[in-house]
Amino acid sequence: MDDAIRDAVRALVPEVGYAALTMDAVAAKARVGKAAIYRRHASRGELVFSALVHGREPQPLPDTGTLSGDLTELANVVLAVFSDPVVAAATPGLLADLKQQPDIAARFQETFIAQERKQVTELLDRAVARGELAGPTDPALVHAAVLGTVFARVFLLAEHPDPAIAPRIAAMAATVATAQPPPGNHRNT
C-alpha cells in the first residue's frame, strides 16, 4: 500500500501540481481508501515529503581524489535531484508548507539536509586530509553554495541547467571552501 501511495504521488504531482494535489486524487490513483492515507500522513505536505524526500538514501559520493572533483560529483547529484520533474513540480509548494508545518520542517532538516550536510563534511574532511584545505571549513556554507546555486537556476530563474554546469558550480563552491574569513570575523556567515 505504501508503494502504491508513493507511486500515485509521483504520478500526480507533475500532472496536477502540488497545490492541486488532493488526498482524494491520491487515494483514487493508488486504489486505496482515503482513510488509509490519513493513517499514514496527516497532511498533503507530510504525504509529499514522505513520497519524495523521506527515506531517500543518498548514494555515497565517490572520492575523486580532488576537492574540485568531489564538489563536481555533489553538484551532479543536486542537479539530478532538482531535474527530477516530480521534485521540481513539488518543491516550491512543499517549501511553502514547511514554513507552516514545523514538524515536517524538522524532519526535512533531520533527514534530507542532514544527509547532504554529512556528505559535504566528508568531502571537505577528505580535502583537508589530502592537504587541499588548510583546515576545517564551514560545510553549511559550502553546501549552500552548491544547493543554492542549483535552486536559484531552477526555481528563481526558471532555467533547466545543463549538467555540464556542474564543474562551474563546483569551482564556485571550492572558492567558498578555501576562502578565509576576514581578520577578526569569526562568525559563520
How is this structure best described in words?
- By secondary structure, this protein is mostly helical.
- It folds into two domains: 2-51, Orthogonal Bundle (Arc Repressor Mutant, subunit A), CATH 1.10.10; 57-178, Tetracycline Repressor, domain 2, CATH 1.10.357.10.
- The protein is built from nine helices and no strands.
- The protein has helices at 2-16, 23-30, 34-40, 44-52, 67-83, 85-100, 102-130, 139-156, 166-178.
- α1 crosses α4 (44-52).
- The longest helix has 29 residues, at 102-130.
- The radius of gyration is 19 Å and the shape is elongated.
The residue ranges in which pLDDT falls below 50 over 5 or more consecutive positions are none
Calculate the mean pLDDT score and round it: 87
Put simply, the count of helices is 9
CATH class of the largest domain: Mainly Alpha
Number of domains: 2
Radius of gyration, taken over Cα atoms and rounded to an integer in Å: 19 Å
Shape-level CATH architecture of the largest domain: Orthogonal Bundle
Q: What summary fits the major beta sheet? A: none
**CATH superfamily placement of the largest domain:** Tetracycline Repressor, domain 2
CA-CA gap between termini: 45 Å
The helix content is 55-70%
Give the secondary structure arrangement, pairings included.
Layout: H1 2-16, H2 23-30, H3 34-40, H4 44-52, H5 67-83, H6 85-100, H7 102-130, H8 139-156, H9 166-178
Provide the descriptors you would attach to this structure in a database record.
single chain, 189 residues, mainly alpha, Arc Repressor Mutant, subunit A, Tetracycline Repressor, domain 2, 2 domains, elongated
